[in-house]
Amino acid sequence: MNQIDMNQIDTNQIDTLKDTQSELPIGKIIYLGYTLAHLAMLLWAAKLFASIPTLSLALLILVLAGLVYDNFIIFIGDRLQLGTTLEKLNQGRYWCHGLLSPLLLIVAVQMLHFAQVSWDRTPWSDGLAWSLTCILMGVEVVTRMVKLNLKPVQFAGTLRYKEVVPSRELPVILVILLLGAIGAIVWQRLDWPWLLGGAAVMMLGSAVPTTTKAGPSIGSGVEVILAWSLVATLFVLGR
Q1: Segments in the chain below pLDDT 50
Q2: In CATH, what number does 22-114+130-237 get?
Protein backbone atom coordinates (compact mmCIF):
# COMPACT_ATOMS: atom_id res chain seq x y z
CA MET A 1 0.00 0.00 0.00
CA ASN A 2 1.45 3.36 -0.96
CA GLN A 3 -1.34 5.44 0.52
CA ILE A 4 -1.07 6.78 4.04
CA ASP A 5 -3.86 7.46 6.47
CA MET A 6 -3.83 11.20 7.08
CA ASN A 7 -4.93 10.60 10.69
CA GLN A 8 -1.72 8.65 11.35
CA ILE A 9 0.65 11.38 10.15
CA ASP A 10 2.49 13.43 12.71
CA THR A 11 1.78 17.14 12.24
CA ASN A 12 5.50 17.83 11.91
CA GLN A 13 5.62 15.70 8.75
CA ILE A 14 3.51 18.04 6.67
CA ASP A 15 3.89 21.75 5.97
CA THR A 16 0.43 23.20 6.56
CA LEU A 17 -0.08 26.75 5.32
CA LYS A 18 -3.61 27.04 6.61
CA ASP A 19 -5.95 24.96 8.76
CA THR A 20 -8.95 24.23 6.54
CA GLN A 21 -10.66 21.33 8.28
CA SER A 22 -13.54 23.47 9.50
CA GLU A 23 -13.69 25.74 6.45
CA LEU A 24 -14.97 25.57 2.91
CA PRO A 25 -12.18 24.01 0.77
CA ILE A 26 -11.86 27.19 -1.27
CA GLY A 27 -8.56 25.97 -2.70
CA LYS A 28 -10.26 23.07 -4.45
CA ILE A 29 -12.80 25.42 -5.97
CA ILE A 30 -10.04 27.74 -7.15
CA TYR A 31 -7.97 24.97 -8.74
CA LEU A 32 -11.03 23.41 -10.35
CA GLY A 33 -11.63 26.83 -11.91
CA TYR A 34 -8.01 27.03 -13.08
CA THR A 35 -8.21 23.52 -14.54
CA LEU A 36 -11.38 24.33 -16.47
CA ALA A 37 -9.96 27.67 -17.65
CA HIS A 38 -6.82 26.04 -19.04
CA LEU A 39 -8.92 23.27 -20.57
CA ALA A 40 -11.09 25.87 -22.31
CA MET A 41 -8.00 27.58 -23.73
CA LEU A 42 -6.57 24.20 -24.76
CA LEU A 43 -9.75 23.49 -26.72
CA TRP A 44 -9.65 26.99 -28.23
CA ALA A 45 -6.04 26.47 -29.33
CA ALA A 46 -6.92 23.04 -30.74
CA LYS A 47 -9.78 24.58 -32.73
CA LEU A 48 -7.42 27.23 -34.10
CA PHE A 49 -4.88 24.54 -34.97
CA ALA A 50 -7.53 22.61 -36.91
CA SER A 51 -7.98 25.61 -39.21
CA ILE A 52 -4.43 27.02 -39.05
CA PRO A 53 -1.98 24.15 -38.32
CA THR A 54 1.09 26.11 -37.23
CA LEU A 55 4.10 25.17 -35.13
CA SER A 56 3.32 27.88 -32.59
CA LEU A 57 -0.16 26.49 -31.92
CA ALA A 58 1.12 22.92 -31.73
CA LEU A 59 3.69 23.86 -29.10
CA LEU A 60 1.23 26.02 -27.21
CA ILE A 61 -1.19 23.08 -27.07
CA LEU A 62 1.55 21.03 -25.38
CA VAL A 63 2.13 23.79 -22.81
CA LEU A 64 -1.60 24.15 -22.13
CA ALA A 65 -1.96 20.39 -21.69
CA GLY A 66 0.79 20.57 -19.07
CA LEU A 67 -1.05 23.37 -17.26
CA VAL A 68 -4.30 21.38 -17.26
CA TYR A 69 -2.40 18.44 -15.73
CA ASP A 70 -0.68 20.70 -13.19
CA ASN A 71 -3.87 22.23 -11.82
CA PHE A 72 -5.89 19.00 -12.01
CA ILE A 73 -3.37 17.12 -9.86
CA ILE A 74 -3.58 19.85 -7.23
CA PHE A 75 -7.39 19.69 -7.41
CA ILE A 76 -7.56 15.92 -6.80
CA GLY A 77 -4.58 15.70 -4.43
CA ASP A 78 -6.58 15.36 -1.22
CA ARG A 79 -8.56 12.48 -2.73
CA LEU A 80 -5.40 10.53 -3.49
CA GLN A 81 -3.91 11.29 -0.05
CA LEU A 82 -0.23 11.17 0.85
CA GLY A 83 1.87 8.43 -0.67
CA THR A 84 3.98 7.34 -3.61
CA THR A 85 1.21 7.82 -6.18
CA LEU A 86 0.57 11.45 -5.29
CA GLU A 87 4.28 12.20 -5.03
CA LYS A 88 4.97 10.72 -8.49
CA LEU A 89 2.09 12.68 -9.99
CA ASN A 90 3.49 15.87 -8.45
CA GLN A 91 6.92 15.06 -9.81
CA GLY A 92 5.21 14.97 -13.19
CA ARG A 93 3.97 18.51 -12.53
CA TYR A 94 7.53 19.73 -12.11
CA TRP A 95 8.80 17.85 -15.17
CA CYS A 96 5.99 19.33 -17.30
CA HIS A 97 6.80 22.78 -15.98
CA GLY A 98 10.54 22.44 -16.58
CA LEU A 99 10.38 20.88 -20.04
CA LEU A 100 7.31 22.57 -21.52
CA SER A 101 7.66 26.18 -20.31
CA PRO A 102 10.80 26.86 -22.45
CA LEU A 103 8.74 25.95 -25.54
CA LEU A 104 7.03 29.31 -25.13
CA LEU A 105 10.23 30.87 -26.47
CA ILE A 106 9.61 29.10 -29.81
CA VAL A 107 5.98 30.20 -29.70
CA ALA A 108 7.09 33.80 -29.20
CA VAL A 109 9.53 33.71 -32.10
CA GLN A 110 6.81 32.25 -34.33
CA MET A 111 4.66 35.22 -33.33
CA LEU A 112 7.35 37.51 -34.73
CA HIS A 113 7.07 35.63 -38.03
CA PHE A 114 3.30 36.20 -38.03
CA ALA A 115 3.81 39.88 -37.22
CA GLN A 116 6.19 40.11 -40.21
CA VAL A 117 9.03 41.76 -38.35
CA SER A 118 11.69 42.49 -40.97
CA TRP A 119 14.78 41.72 -38.88
CA ASP A 120 13.23 38.42 -37.81
CA ARG A 121 13.35 37.04 -41.35
CA THR A 122 16.84 35.61 -41.04
CA PRO A 123 17.95 31.98 -41.44
CA TRP A 124 19.40 31.85 -37.95
CA SER A 125 16.44 33.16 -35.92
CA ASP A 126 14.62 29.83 -35.64
CA GLY A 127 17.83 27.92 -35.05
CA LEU A 128 18.86 30.31 -32.29
CA ALA A 129 15.44 30.04 -30.67
CA TRP A 130 15.50 26.24 -30.72
CA SER A 131 19.06 26.16 -29.39
CA LEU A 132 18.21 28.49 -26.51
CA THR A 133 15.07 26.47 -25.74
CA CYS A 134 17.08 23.24 -25.55
CA ILE A 135 19.66 24.95 -23.32
CA LEU A 136 16.93 26.16 -20.94
CA MET A 137 15.47 22.66 -20.81
CA GLY A 138 18.89 21.22 -20.06
CA VAL A 139 19.47 23.76 -17.30
CA GLU A 140 16.14 22.82 -15.71
CA VAL A 141 16.94 19.11 -15.83
CA VAL A 142 20.51 19.38 -14.55
CA THR A 143 19.98 22.00 -11.85
CA ARG A 144 16.51 21.04 -10.69
CA MET A 145 14.86 17.85 -11.91
CA VAL A 146 17.60 15.32 -11.26
CA LYS A 147 17.76 16.36 -7.61
CA LEU A 148 14.06 17.09 -7.11
CA ASN A 149 13.18 16.74 -3.42
CA LEU A 150 9.52 17.20 -2.52
CA LYS A 151 7.52 17.52 0.68
CA PRO A 152 3.74 17.40 1.24
CA VAL A 153 1.92 20.69 1.66
CA GLN A 154 -1.69 21.48 2.53
CA PHE A 155 -3.25 24.72 1.34
CA ALA A 156 -6.90 25.80 1.58
CA GLY A 157 -8.25 22.26 1.31
CA THR A 158 -5.75 21.06 -1.32
CA LEU A 159 -2.87 18.62 -0.90
CA ARG A 160 0.21 18.58 -3.07
CA TYR A 161 3.96 18.00 -2.98
CA LYS A 162 6.33 20.94 -3.40
CA GLU A 163 10.07 21.46 -3.38
CA VAL A 164 11.71 21.39 0.03
CA VAL A 165 13.98 24.22 -1.12
CA PRO A 166 12.20 26.31 -3.79
CA SER A 167 14.20 26.90 -6.97
CA ARG A 168 14.74 30.33 -8.46
CA GLU A 169 13.35 29.16 -11.81
CA LEU A 170 15.70 31.40 -13.77
CA PRO A 171 14.92 29.73 -17.13
CA VAL A 172 11.21 30.47 -16.69
CA ILE A 173 11.94 34.07 -15.71
CA LEU A 174 14.04 34.47 -18.86
CA VAL A 175 11.21 33.08 -21.01
CA ILE A 176 8.72 35.51 -19.45
CA LEU A 177 11.06 38.46 -20.07
CA LEU A 178 11.47 37.44 -23.71
CA LEU A 179 7.70 37.07 -24.05
CA GLY A 180 7.34 40.59 -22.68
CA ALA A 181 9.88 41.96 -25.15
CA ILE A 182 8.17 40.26 -28.09
CA GLY A 183 4.81 41.40 -26.70
CA ALA A 184 6.07 44.99 -26.90
CA ILE A 185 6.97 44.46 -30.56
CA VAL A 186 3.55 42.97 -31.31
CA TRP A 187 1.92 45.92 -29.55
CA GLN A 188 3.92 48.38 -31.63
CA ARG A 189 3.16 46.69 -34.95
CA LEU A 190 -0.42 45.53 -34.42
CA ASP A 191 -1.70 47.73 -31.59
CA TRP A 192 -2.26 44.57 -29.52
CA PRO A 193 -0.96 45.08 -25.94
CA TRP A 194 -2.27 41.89 -24.35
CA LEU A 195 0.78 39.66 -24.80
CA LEU A 196 2.94 42.26 -23.06
CA GLY A 197 0.24 42.65 -20.40
CA GLY A 198 0.04 38.90 -19.84
CA ALA A 199 3.81 38.63 -19.44
CA ALA A 200 3.86 41.59 -17.02
CA VAL A 201 1.09 40.10 -14.90
CA MET A 202 2.88 36.75 -14.90
CA MET A 203 6.11 38.35 -13.72
CA LEU A 204 4.36 40.29 -10.94
CA GLY A 205 2.33 37.29 -9.79
CA SER A 206 5.36 35.03 -9.73
CA ALA A 207 7.04 37.48 -7.35
CA VAL A 208 4.43 36.79 -4.64
CA PRO A 209 6.02 34.41 -2.09
CA THR A 210 4.34 30.99 -2.01
CA THR A 211 4.64 31.04 1.78
CA THR A 212 1.91 33.68 2.00
CA LYS A 213 -1.71 32.56 2.38
CA ALA A 214 -2.70 33.49 -1.16
CA GLY A 215 0.72 32.94 -2.75
CA PRO A 216 0.13 29.50 -4.34
CA SER A 217 -3.23 30.43 -5.84
CA ILE A 218 -1.94 33.77 -7.17
CA GLY A 219 0.98 32.07 -8.88
CA SER A 220 -1.37 29.63 -10.61
CA GLY A 221 -3.88 32.38 -11.38
CA VAL A 222 -1.45 34.52 -13.33
CA GLU A 223 -0.62 31.47 -15.46
CA VAL A 224 -4.25 31.54 -16.61
CA ILE A 225 -3.88 35.18 -17.67
CA LEU A 226 -0.64 34.50 -19.53
CA ALA A 227 -2.13 31.47 -21.26
CA TRP A 228 -5.12 33.53 -22.40
CA SER A 229 -2.85 36.28 -23.73
CA LEU A 230 -0.88 33.72 -25.76
CA VAL A 231 -3.90 32.02 -27.33
CA ALA A 232 -5.62 35.35 -27.99
CA THR A 233 -2.48 36.78 -29.60
CA LEU A 234 -2.14 33.78 -31.93
CA PHE A 235 -5.81 34.14 -32.79
CA VAL A 236 -5.33 37.80 -33.73
CA LEU A 237 -2.13 37.10 -35.67
CA GLY A 238 -3.77 34.27 -37.58
CA ARG A 239 -6.78 36.27 -38.76
Answers
A1: 1-22
A2: 1.20.1070.10
